[in-house]
Amino acid sequence: MAIDPKKLRRLVVDMLMEDDDSTTPGEHGSGEHHAALPFLSGVLYTQPNPDGSLKRCGNCANYATDTGRCYIHAEDVEITPAKLCGYHVFSPEQLKTFTSVLPLAPVLPELSGLREAGEGQGCQGCHYYAGDDSFGDCLGVVSQLGGPAPVEAKGLCARFETKEA
Ligand code: SF4
Ligand code: SF4
Q: Which pTM was predicted?
């Protein structure tokens, strides 16, 4: 069975937050008990592409343009430049900033969040985004100080959910 490191990390972060009373998870809504929201650092948030483009497989360092494959998905998973998942990495240089490289089994599309992305996506197209074309708040994560975390319109994280029209 493939183990998805991102999902595992999210579970660990949630468990740590539940065990630690000093952390105040974000609450949005009625004041009833809600599951703790993850920190921005726990959902692999990435800043906007340096060239201003929206994120898509076509500008991801994990996409092999010669074979049409994604290095982290199985060979039989169809990838096109107009798709996107939560593991998007803009450039090989950005890939080098990762702190570790795990011996990964192929990531399952239902866990990576693989989806059609057209010309590209970013926080501004996410269900959890509240902001303008430049900056906003993410209501799907919590900042270290509590409350919504500030994000950039063209950033992205693994919690991305397409905003309903
Ligand atoms: S599926 Fe994800 S990791 Fe693979 S090329 Fe597309 S955005 Fe990058
Ligand atoms: S707005 Fe969506 S994509 Fe952006 S950080 Fe929040 S959950 Fe992730």
A: 0.74
Q: What is the extent of the structural domain holding 141?
A: 5-152
Residue 11: inside a domain = yes
Neighbours of 82 (CB within 10 A): 13
Q: Is residue 164 part of a domain?
A: no
Q: Flag whether 16 is in a domain.
A: yes
Tell how strand 63-64 and strand 115-116 pair up: unpaired
Residue 117, ligand 1, Cβ within 6 A: no
Q: What is the pLDDT of residues 106-127, one digit of tens each?
A: 889 998 899 999 999 999 999 9
Distance CA 151, CA 128 (A): 11
Tally of structural domains, the chain: 1
Q: What is the pLDDT of residues 20-59, one digit of tens each?
A: 433 334 444 433 444 689 998 889 899 999 999 999 999 9
43 assigned to some structural domain: yes
* Ligand 2, atom 4: closest residue by C-alpha: 123
Burial of 70 (0-12, 13-18, 19+ CB in 10 A): buried
Q: Ligand 2 pocket check: which of 10, 135, 152, 157 to mutate, most ligand atoms within 8 Å of Cβ?
A: 157
Closest CA to 114 of 158, 48, 152, 58: 158
